[in-house]
Amino acid sequence: MKTRAILSVLGEDRVGIVAAVSNALAAAGANIEDIRQTILSGVFSMTMLVTVDEEACAFEDVQAHLTAVAKELGLQITLQREDVFAFMHRV
Amino acid sequence: MLQITPEEIAETLTMVTQQHLDIRTVTLGVSLKECASGDVDTLATRVYDRLTTVAEHLVPTCEAIAREFGIPIINKRISVTPIAEIVAGARGDLTPVAEAMDRAAKEVGVDFIGGFSALVHKGIGQADRQVIDSMPSALATTDRVCASVNVASTRAGINMDAVMLMAETVKATAAATADRDGIGCAKLVVFCNMVEDNPFMAGAVHGSGEADVVVNVGISGPGVVNAVVRSLPEDADLTAVAEAIKATSFKITRAGELVAREAARRLGVAMGIVDLSLAPTPADGDSVAEILEAIGVGRVGGPGTTTALALLNDAIKKGGAMGTSSIGGLSGAFIPVSEDSGMVRAVECGALTLEKLEAMMSVCSVGLDMIAIPGDTPAETIAAIISDACAIGVINSKTTAARLIPVPGRVVGDHVSFGGLLGAAPVMAVNGWAGTRLVRRGGRVPAPLSSLRN
Fold first, then answer.
1. By the 8 A CB rule, do B144 and B233 touch?
2. Interchain CB contact of A88 with B (< 8 Å)
3. Do B142 and B43 fall into the same domain?
4. Dihedral of alpha carbons B245, B247, B253, B255, sign
């Protein structure tokens, strides 16, 4: 089952954030569909639309991979199913 | 392509991380009709077996949904067929049935189970009386079982005999749990116009008009609404305030709708309702009282409070009605005292009294909720307070309720703590000029003319 999900990353800017996040996603078999990234007053902010292949890697395992990256780089990373945003922000 | 803007994503994350957005409860409604038995022990065994089978996957399923959607689900609960309806001639004390419910709740990991209940708004049957008589013992010996009794309805009027019986039961329950400040009464609610699909405790039951098993969801979000109102300009007019609350309510309700659909799908049961009630917690900022103060009341309980609450309650419904086509349960703002730090503050400074809470009850749901009163309050006075709550519900065709805790040995101004979500509260003063003779008359207050609608 392919599940669309939103990945948000927030934290102090440093070298290698995009690489680490992308690597974690690739290792979990999750595909990146779209990326928006910006830096505001030194704060790194990135939003990704990803497709998680739950047959290759369960949703909570993908989350676990990303939690490891978040810990290592001191970032806040969340991965949530896309439906929650569509439900809350679209009539 | 990303259909959602980064700002919208950030807004949702802020709601969860800073404004206490959560799903307050996913409540599995379970019919126990098939458990009916004329023998108490058989009944208890059947209830335990049925609950541990049907609700086995409830908690892990909710935990997975919360993780994947990034919205916490605080409580997982069960509501059941009112026990009086499945007694089927069994005689004697029904505490073993409550104990079976408690064991099952602990086994499947839910924090409360509601439905040790009876509906007696027109008359008290043998089974109803057994359930009510068992309540003090059942609530004292169990941790997670909640009890409720419907004593009035718009179609039947107020059964004053039942009101008096429940006042005595409240006193007896307080006495049975005197060593824990009468906590049994925090799990006992007396209703007018009880609903069949309420997911919130202590009044949740699974009504006779429901399917065998359903998922009902109670949303939350006082913190989110509070933050939105506080972010408005000081001079925003009331239409703008209502508009902002309405838009926020839509978003919160959608989160509830999504969780309800998903939980029902994964559990393979019917989706029941989404309850729009704003339910406060003792956490700072997660307070309905603080919303009313943000709207412009000096301190909740002061003049203007009823207006602000009416505006809030109405705006929540309007936004929620766009968010789900399955509105149900109580769906009005809750104004419990001990569970809302803003309410507690208002009581402590003298702004909020029992009489003002009664007025507030007329424009929102439930009403006299989680109120600690002096332990020596006479049963007749408690009955009169309950009957006033019922009168408002009967005449206005709405649900009202009383969850009063006459704390043994405590007097006005003492502070009592019930722990967890039940919170802590000062003991409130009770008007000493009660309608003692009124409630002792017994009988029934007839249904109002407005009930004749056919």
1. no
2. yes
3. yes
4. negative
- Could you report the per-residue pLDDT of B58-88, keeping only the tens digit for each? 999 999 999 999 999 999 999 999 999 999 8
Alpha-carbon torsion angle B22, B300, B338, B182, nearest 10:
-150
- Would you call B8 and A89 a contact, using CB atoms and an 8 Å cutoff? yes
Q: Is B452 on the interface with A (CB under 8 A)?
A: no
B178 and B250 co-located in one domain = no
d(CA B30, CA B82): 10
ipTM of the complex in this document:
0.92
pLDDT tens-place string over residues B183-221: 999 999 999 999 999 999 999 999 999 999 999 999 987
Which residue in chain B is spatially nearest to A49 when comparing CA positions? B2
**Distances A3 to A29, A54, B258, B334 between C-alpha atoms, Å:** 12, 7, 15, 37
Whole-model pTM above 0.90? yes
Separation CA B392–CA B399 (nearest Å):
9
Please tell me if residue A86 touches chain B, with a CB cutoff of 8 Å. yes
A1 touching B (Cβ < 8 Å): no
Q: What are phi and psi of B20, to 5 degrees?
A: 60, 30
* Interface contact flag, A47 B251, Cβ < 8 Å: no
A36 touches chain B (CB under 8 A): yes
How far apart are alpha carbons B99 and B86 in whole angstroms?
Answer: 16
B77 pairs with which residues across the strands? B27, B112
Contacts B71 to A, Cβ<8 Å: 84
**Domain harbouring B312, CATH code:** 3.20.70.20
- Architecture per CATH, domain A2-89, reads as 2-Layer Sandwich (3.30)
CB pairs under 8 A between A and B: 68
Range of the domain at B311: 218-439
